Amino acid sequence: MRTQVLSEIQSKILLALMLHAKSSSGEILKEVGISGSTWNKEKMQLQNSGLIEGQTTRGLTENGVVRKTEFKLTGKGKSIAQYLLSISSLIGGEPIQNEGMEKVLELTVKS
């Protein structure tokens, strides 16, 4: 049996989704600082692992029907994201508050 390991980018995506209950692809690209092709590859791996799920909705605008897909963490994904935050807290030496979560994501994106 093959052991699955989270990549650095996947960890950043999970932390970004932890900050925002639901996010569109564009929001994730901006938050994590990755390209569209990287997002597509990582998104498929995270979905296949059962860590994130996408929900597609349709809305009517002046220009016609617009389809929007938003992503959120599954129960398993939330657990793993919380473990990542705990690890970051231990490494940083301080407990992470809500405002501190954004700083953790900011630091992980810069690395």
Question: Can you give a write-up of this model?
Answer:
This protein has one domain (8-110): Winged helix-like DNA-binding domain superfamily/Winged helix DNA-binding domain (Arc Repressor Mutant, subunit A), CATH 1.10.10. The chain is α+β, with helices and mostly antiparallel strands and 111 residues long. A 3-stranded antiparallel β-sheet has the order 1-3-2. The chain starts with 7 loop residues before the first helix and ends with a helix. The chain contains 5 helices and 3 strands. Helix 1 (8-19) packs across helix 4 and helix 1 packs antiparallel against helix 5 (98-110).
Can you give keywords for this protein?
20% strand; 3 strands; alpha+beta; Arc Repressor Mutant, subunit A; 111 residues; 58% helix; single chain
Our Rg estimate from Cα atoms comes to: 15 Å
Main-sheet strand order equals 1-3-2
> CATH topology, what is it called?
Arc Repressor Mutant, subunit A
Helix content: 55-70%
How is the secondary structure organized here?
Layout: H1 8-19, E1 23-24, H2 25-32, H3 36-48, E2 52-61, E3 64-73, H4 75-92, H5 98-110
Antiparallel strand pairs: 1-3, 2-3
Helix pairs in contact: 1-4, 1-5
Summarize the structure.
The protein is α+β, with helices and mostly antiparallel strands. It contains 5 helices and 3 strands; from the N terminus they run αβααββαα. A hairpin with a 2-residue loop joins strand 2 (52-61) and strand 3 (64-73).
